[in-house]
Amino acid sequence: xxxxxxxxxxxxxxxxxxxxxxxxxxxxxxxxxxxxxxxxxxxxxxxxxxxxxxxxxxxxxxxxxxxxxxxxxxxxxxxxxxxxxxxxxxxxxxxxxxxxxxxxxxxxxxxxxxxxxxxxxxxxxxxxxxxxxxxxxxxxxxxxxxxxxxxxxxxxxxxxxxxxxxxxxxxxxxxxxxxxxxxxxxxxxxxxxxxxxxxxxxxxxxxxxxxxxxxxxxxxxxxx
Length: 224
Ligand code: IYR
Known about the structure:
Keywords: Flavoprotein, FMN, Oxidoreductase. The protein has helices at 17-31, 47-57, 77-98, 101-107, 118-121, 147-164, 179-184, 217-220; strands at residues 69-74, 124-131, 133-134, 142-143, 168-172, 190-199. By secondary structure, the protein is an alpha+beta fold.
């Protein structure tokens, strides 16, 4: 390594192997109950939960530590309604012709369609933007690196943090998403990546059986 400013890395607890194994099992038990939820309760959720989850997301590994993300948190009924109108218009085009038959067949077991009432029911819509340019200091316009990877990891950590707080989420991806820049007052240099719908699940929420079928370890990994 070349000389650079350093600090000792002492924050990781030195668990025993048994503790590590137990914790790995416990975490899997927690995270395996995460589901994409399409039925939300209108109940309010404290803003502090969202703030802490966003701070957790902001610790994600990323290119050159430029942290190339922005989270626009929509809470106003007017903005949610406007987002729903725009998203449903695009979803109608998608489901009524733009999407290939193969794509629609793949979505069939999820039961999704162009109706997105949850966009007005859930207490929070977090619109996630990727910054192609930025850097570390506010106002910087440097090149950012590994932007999609960085924002993808941060989004995964955000979903995980919200799940850990007992909240349901849905990654919603209207296509195309350009309308989100204006709606959220974000510059054209930022690319909207997805809308994360956040809240409590409705008491009668259901999940598609299809979504519960997870590939076993021997299919998702190889050991060399
Ligand atoms: N964006 C659409 C379609 C959609 C696409 C995939 I791939 C999904 O896993 C789910 C939905 C929608 O939100 O309905």
